[in-house]
Amino acid sequence: MKTGIKNKNIILGVCGGIAAYKSVELLRLLKKEGADVRVIMTKNAREFVGAMTFEALSGHRVCTDLFADSDDASIKHIEWASVADAVVIAPATANIIGKCANGIADDALSTFMLAVTSPVLLCPSMNTNMYLSRPVQKNLEMLASYGYVITEPGAGELACGTTGPGRLPEPPEILDRLICCLTPKDLKGKKVLVTAGPTREAIDPVRFISNPSSGKMGYAVARAAEHRGAGVVLIAGPVNLTDPINVTVLKVSSAQEMAAAVFNYMEQSDIIVKTAAVSDFRPKEAAKQKIKKGEKDEATLFLVKNQDILKELGRRKKDGQILVGFAAETEELERNAGKKLEEKNLDMIAGNLVNHPGSGFATDTNQVTLFYRNGTKEPLSAMGKDEVAHILLDRVLSVISSKPSVISSEASRIL
Ligand code: PMT
Question: In this structure, are residues 202 and 211 in contact, taking their beta carbons and an 8 Å threshold?
Fold first, then answer.
């Protein structure tokens, strides 16, 4: 599936609120992602940020007035509405929310909003009492029923001095929601369980055995599945990443903790993707206190094997459940990944050479080869982990289309 907002026509609506400065950063992010962005500002928005800033960053004239005397101005609301792939209004004030909900068209932005048919992401931002007021909440409900996607405002101390919901989400979050709006929901109704990151096996209270997994690959799979409409549970080892929006995230540390969490959710999951780099061994006993260096030049650590979580999942796998593994290899990718596919009873395994630049641990890109149960393989070129995640989910859907789901509706409701 082609995802993201590269080459998409995005209309950014900016209203008059203190958070209007954040829409400048949002525009910069959208441009960085390769979107073509046109900006429509309300009169009040120009009290907070100048149109010139948006013009310079977007590379287009900004629409501020339906009747402005410029080539670009005439019937823009119709012209731009017909080419828009998506609209984002950030910040969305009580005023534009009220106008959109009630079909009022008295300026460029509100008129455009009546003409547009593409997905709309509305990002309310205002004083807490205004946001919680019955008219605004009623209007938001109405807009949600029309299919507008509405972001939850952040809570905290606002510029007006009140404390509570009303803050505009940060631009990366708005970008994520916009990408979600543009992503077809072909995993709607599916429950996806993803594991990510490393595990830590304690040696003593201050030392542990681990590996360089950053969690990026697993988080990309969780994010992609959520964007495609799945209910997602992400079980993550210690990582330093922002939790994906709208995903249930469970943080664990050791392989044993990860195993317990995974087995807890496995029954109700249609698709399980095990991206985590689970430690194969753990110290037989973790010392209660920090181990002293002592006089000897050598020390011995007794290790015991951790349970192979994926193998156990493969053993318990139900008909219709899809199990995807990852294989981190430094040599003989095909042989090693193929062996894991068979031994762990997987439907698919993504093999990656972790000693190659731009592939494996902690990079933003990955180069994987997908191995399938029927003995075929699909080498992919190096690409962003988000892209890898989407291709992997495309292939999962192909496998599903040849397998009926037997997860009970009872189990599905638990997630
Ligand atoms: O997190 P990043 O920095 O983005 O890096 C991504 C990645 C390199 C971690 C990822 O692409 C990857 O390769 N993940 C699998 C890492 C791994 O543990 O591979 P393995 O070949 O040792 O294990 C094979 C499979 O068995 C994996 O799906 C693993 O989750 C699972 N396993 C392994 C051991 C164990 N005790 N329990 C398991 O479930």
Answer: no
pLDDT of residue 394: 97
- Residue 107 exposed, middle or buried by CB count within 10 Å (0-12, 13-18, 19+): buried
* pLDDT at residue 217 in the model: 98
Q: Residue type at 59?
A: G
Q: Return the closest-CA partner of residue 92 out of 163, 25, 169, 160.
A: 169
- Atom of ligand 1 at shortest range from CA of 325: 28
State the pLDDT at residue 145. 98
DSSP 47-96: GTS-HHHHHHHHSSPPB--TT-SSTTTTTHHHHHHHH-SEEEEEEEPHHH
- The pair of three-digit structure tokens given for residue 44, joined into one six-digit string: 């009040």
Establish whether residue 217 lines the binding site of ligand 1, counting it when its CB lies within 6 angstroms of any ligand atom: yes
274 Cβ closer than 6 Å to some ligand 1 atom: yes
Sorted by where each starts, the structural domains of the chain and their CATH numbers stand as: 9-181 (3.40.50.1950), 191-287+300-414 (3.40.50.10300)
- The answer to whether 183 and 227 have CB atoms below 8 angstroms apart is yes
pTM: 0.93
* Three-class DSSP category at 181: helix
**Cα 203-205-208 angle, rounded to 5 deg:** 35
